[in-house]
Amino acid sequence: MKVILHDLGPSMDGQLAARCDRIISADGKFAPCQGCFGCWTKHPAECFMKDSLQRVCRVIGQADELVIVTKNLYGAYSADVKNVLDRSIGTSTPFSTYRGRQMHHTLRYGKHDLWKVIVYGDATEAEKETFRYVARRNALNDGFERSEVHFIESLAELEGLL
């Protein structure tokens, strides 16, 4: 299953929906993670907050390919995209295992294929390198086999990357 997580606004949902199985719109109309870890223990992979991200763990957890379209924010995801990723911690369990010679949380949904990040907005070379590093680490932590980061100058370039 291919999932697109984006911060482009609801007007882009229709265009993006034709390119994937599920859309997650980081529109800011949801609560930030409260850090209660209930999605790990009390009700696995489901947030207690009843908003559009209540079951985001399940959607991201079942994705073979996760495509994140985000504005550059000092070499990191936009605030709304980061909030969605924070709310998806339930894709793993509180138990630990070794992956890539490092300790990581056990995956609730198994391995995935591609963590792809498409970044728009101005970015310095240092910010680009930071973004590549963060994406690589996020992919490893969430059980994705590989990661890609693409920097685009205009949204018209999205077409070839989705």
Compile the SSE list and pairings.
Blueprint (H helix, E strand, L loop, with lengths): L1 E5 L6 H5 L4 E4 L30 H6 L3 E7 L7 H9 L4 E8 L2 E6 L4 E9 L4 H17 L2 E9 L5 H4 L1
Parallel strand pairs: 1-2, 1-3, 3-6, 6-7
Antiparallel strand pairs: 4-5
Summarize the structure.
The chain has 5 helices and 7 strands, in the order E-H-E-H-E-H-E-E-E-H-E-H. By secondary structure, it is α/β, with parallel strands linked by helices.
Account of the 3D structure:
With 162 residues, the chain is of the alpha/beta class. It has a single domain (6-161), classed as Rossmann fold, CATH 3.40.50. The protein has helices at residues 13-17, 56-61, 79-87, 125-141, 158-161; strands at residues 2-6, 22-25, 65-71, 92-99, 102-107, 112-120, 144-152. It has a 5-stranded parallel β-sheet. Strand 1 (2-6), helix 1 and strand 2 (22-25) form a beta-alpha-beta unit. The radius of gyration is 15 Å and the shape is globular.
